[in-house]
């Protein structure tokens, strides 16, 4: 029942909110993929590759915060468009 309500709500979102969420999700997936590629390319952890590992760690952790900000922004856009 909750999934049906969620899908109905997502279907009735304004275009700007939907675009914001979709683009943020695309950016987050790209960041996680880049982190994966960096980790595969770096090989074993050593003194020469620690910067690559730190970069990959940041790339894999930042999408959560980015998605949180996008959800808050989409909610604000929805409130503004409904009034």
Describe this structure in words.
This protein is mainly alpha-helical. It is 86% helix and 0% strand. It has helices at residues 2-11, 15-42, 50-82. Helix 2 runs antiparallel to helix 3 (50-82). The two termini are 27 Å apart. The mean pLDDT is 86.
Features:
mainly alpha, elongated, single chain
Helix and strand layout, with pairings?
Layout: H1 2-11, H2 15-42, H3 50-82
Concise overview:
The chain has about 80 residues and is an all-alpha fold.
Q: In terms of structural class, how would the helical and strand content be classed?
A: mainly alpha
Sheet having the most strands: none
Distance between the termini: 27 Å
Number of strands: 0
Into which percentage range does the β-strand content fall? under 5%
Rounded radius of gyration (Å): 18 Å
Arithmetic mean pLDDT: 86
Gross geometry: elongated
Order of helices and strands: HHH
Residue ranges: pLDDT <50 for 5 or more in a row? none
Question: What percent of residues adopt helix (DSSP H or I)?
Answer: over 70%
Number of separate helices: 3
């Amino acid at each position: 029942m909750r999934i049906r309500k969620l899908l109905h709500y997502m279907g009735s979102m304004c275009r700007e909110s939907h675009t914001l969420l979709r683009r943020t999700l695309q950016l987050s997936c790209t960041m996680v993929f880049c982190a994966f590629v960096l980790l595969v390319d770096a090989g074993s952890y050593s003194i020469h590759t620690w910067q690559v590992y730190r970069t990959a760690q940041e790339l894999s952790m930042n999408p959560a915060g980015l998605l949180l900000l996008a959800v808050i922004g989409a909610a604000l856009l929805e409130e503004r468009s409904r009034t």
